[in-house]
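Quick illustration for those who missed Monday's session on complexes.
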Amino acid sequence: MAFDLVFFGGTGDLVWRKLMPALFQAFRHDSLPEGGRIIGVGRDDLTDDQYRQQIQSRFEQVEGDKRPKPEEFARFASLLCYVRVDLSEPAAYAALAQRLAERETDSVVMYLSTAPSLFTTVCEQLAAHGMNTPKTRIVLEKPLGHDLASNRAINHAVGLVFKEQQIFRIDHYLGKPAVQNLFAMRFGNALFEPLWRREHIANIQITMAEELGVEKRGGFYETTGALRDMVQNHALQLLCAIAMEPPINAHADAIRDEKLKVLRALKRWTPETLNQHVIRGQYNAGNVFGQAVPGYRSEAGVSPSSSTETFVALRTEIANWRWAGVPFYIRTGKRMAAREAYIEINFRPTPHDIFQTPSGQVNKLVIHLQPKDGLELHLFAQGPSKRGEGSGTTTLSPVHLDLDFDKRFGSQRVGAYERLLLDVLDGRLNLFVRSDEQEEAWRWVEPILQHWKNDPIGPRPYTAGTWGPSASTAMIARDGFCWSEEI
Ligand code: BG6
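Prediction with 6-O-phosphono-beta-D-glucopyranose bound:
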């Protein structure tokens, strides 16, 4: 299975931070198909050896056992090479075509880790230089556009050159082991399915909190914001994985058909729900883990009067038989109190309480995505009896079953980018997003963007190191629920 894997943006941040380390882990796990070549493409004038050295010096900054040993790196480095291409210069693509023509391969993967404004040009030039053969696959990194129209334009342009089966739209959340385990839990076990519906579930919460700010990406983030950066893609994909019907089989289109139905069933926005069910926030200076941090407007590349949101909390519903009336809450933000991503399924209370269950608590299933990767089932049990409890009501104690996948499966676990890169090399589309899903997600977020454009109030401030503006707590409290911060 010889392959050529070409990274456009080969000297960029994503390649250094995520893609090369993921490929190295795959190499170390012996999972990379034989006969591979990894080709970095960039504007810098580098030889193959200089490119290898750049990667080696990045790897030297890696801490712990993920850092390659010198002999391991030497073997990995033999797969690496570099081609200089100025992507805005049509004639420059000939150098890449020539390099690819040097040898026969089973597949060629073009990974576009560049600004999305270049996607159309790159695809056109690949076609113009004969690099869109049936064995070519193309990988597109988010953001794929900044609204519905720009997303459709990109999908249209790429679709003129590649068939849908050749297009791998990355949402790295789908590659997280916890998300695959969510599919396994739901569709590989019969246990939860009868409970997985409006009759038994009171509400569902998706939290994706980061303690980091915008780091060096202020310029990018200013024009993006949390809604486009996290909700349109990652949060909605998680929501689909929770809410979708069981697919008829495990093939990519069967899964994607079901996810699409969820997106189509998301309740449409009204002026009232836009006002009451969507909260945007922006962090002020504060303390994160005891460290003083600046406010968003003081970050490099950010305007001092910025109205970009660094936090979003929203409430939605899915208008179908399974979920009608069940609130789904989504919350995500930068500079929050912790780095934690989890989904909480809150079940309904018992219809008639003969014990005394702790007030405000219910059975819940928590799916931890990070930093922990596992499942927790919260139940009530009778703890050791105390004197005087013989005759009156029995008070139950909360207990939980805790399944920690990292402990269970240990070092055999495969990270998100490693999983997704291996799937691209294998031609497996299951964990990639189809164009119609992506468009539907944009269609749903667009009224929020429009609403914000016309809303003079702007994002609500919150102190860095907290769980976001108080309006987010108030929103969920109106339904009689609360966010669980105490997990
Ligand atoms: C990316 C966003 O898609 O996801 C970043 O652009 C965000 O802003 C990141 O920090 C979060 O990913 P993870 O895997 O660290 O939760």
